[in-house]
TrEMBL record:
One of its GO terms (cellular component) is cytoplasm. This is Glutamine amidotransferase type-2 domain-containing protein. One of its GO terms (biological process) is glutathione catabolic process. Residues 2-355 form the Glutamine amidotransferase type-2 domain. It comes from Oleoguttula mirabilis. One of its GO terms (molecular function) is omega peptidase activity.
């Protein structure tokens, strides 16, 4: 069920190849194999075999598309001098996302490999997809872009086709117009943008918003989905798996959510240290391999502050990774970092007919 990787730092760029390709458990290799330390059983009272915790909602083959968004200042660097004028009438200051999407297997996609080998960024979103019921085409690949904002999802909005119209009815015109594909994920992204901008027009997508506002918008999007399901489906409403992540190139909010009394959402981890091991300028290797002369690189303490949020750890140092708890969110800004419980109502608990 999909995998994703997010990196953000106010000062320290990463090389896409280092974080997405090189590690033995990099995102581009999480097509079949999975590494899930610290993960508790999905349903502690229903363990049918020793591999249960490794398989439930985590081990579907992720072969249905790749997407990468990396933030760059290239557009703003080439605005017209210091006049404040821009080529299209909208001055895009700061970082903006460049995007590459493909339905090719990532590790054998030469375009992807070339981009990764030659691109550095301080903010990266990357996602490999396991399609549920929508077509395998590039436009359905995450991350989804709304001007400066990027959004991605691992999981499923249950009974999406039954609540899709209700979701669309709650969207702003600008957010609805920004949908290019047919996935549940892009629709919840549009709900997020609607609440983030307070139903603003397309120009509101160019603004950055406080991280608390981002977290509030994400909760409202989740609440809108669950409320619609309860209203339209009643007791037949099924639980959702909503591992969500959004950034504006400055701040990041990530969500790990499942509305079931005992079952866990798909895996999600964070690290504030692994970026050093993932950067070839610094000592150590993500797989613990002894690389000649790598120890002659920069001192570890010189590495800038950063945050990685990912479906799975991509370095051998298990102690650098922390499993985000069920129904918790991560809020990160240039000077702040917090993990907190998300607002949750007991009435949201739904039954899983496949449990």
């Amino acid at each position: 069920m999909c995998r994703w990787f997010a990196y953000i730092s106010p000062t320290e760029p990463c090389l896409l190849e280092d974080v997405l390709v090189t590690p033995k458990n990099s995102l581009s290799r999480q097509v079949h194999d999975h590494y899930l330390p610290q993960l508790i059983a999905h349903n502690p009272e229903d363990l049918h075999d020793a591999d249960h915790q490794m398989t439930a909602r985590n081990s579907i083959y992720n072969i249905d598309g790749l997407g990468v968004a990396w933030y760059t200042s290239s557009n703003s660097d080439f605005e017209r001098g210091n006049t404040g004028e821009s080529s299209d009438g909208i001055l895009k200051e700061g970082l903006r996302p460049a995007v590459y999407k493909t339905v090719q297997p990532p590790i054998n996609d030469l375009n992807f490999r070339s981009i990764c080998a030659n691109t550095e960024t301080r903010v990266c979103f990357a996602h490999i997809r396991a399609a549920s019921s929508t077509p395998i085409v590039s436009v359905n690949n995450h991350p989804f872009i709304f001007c400066r904002h990027a959004f991605m999802h691992n999981g499923v909005v249950s009974d999406f086709t039954k609540i899709k119209r209700g979701m669309c009815d709650q969207m702003s015109d600008a957010a609805y117009s920004g949908i290019n594909g047919g996935t549940d994920s892009e629709h919840i992204a549009a709900l997020y943008m609607t609440f983030l901008t307070d139903n603003g027009d397309a120009s509101s997508f160019e603004r950055d918003y406080p991280v608390e506002k981002m977290a509030e918008a994400m909760h409202k999007a989740v609440a809108a989905v669950v409320t619609l399901q309860r209203k339209l489906l009643g007791s037949k409403a099924q639980p959702n798996s909503l591992n969500l992540c959004a950034t504006d190139g400055i701040k990041l909010v990530a969500y790990r959510f499942r509305n079931h009394a005992t079952e866990q959402p798909p895996s999600l981890y964070y690290s504030t240290k692994a970026g050093t091991t993932l950067n070839r300028k610094y000592p150590d290797h993500p797989d613990g391999i002894d690389v000649p002369n790598r120890s002659a690189g920069k001192a570890v303490e010189d590495h800038g502050r950063h945050l990685i949020v990912a479906s799975e750890p991509s370095t051998y140092k298990q102690e650098d990774w922390h499993l985000i708890g069920k129904n918790q969110c991560v809020l990160a800004g240039p000077e702040s970092f917090e993990v907190r419980d998300v607002p949750y109502e007991k009435a949201w608990d739904a039954e899983d007919p496949n449990a």
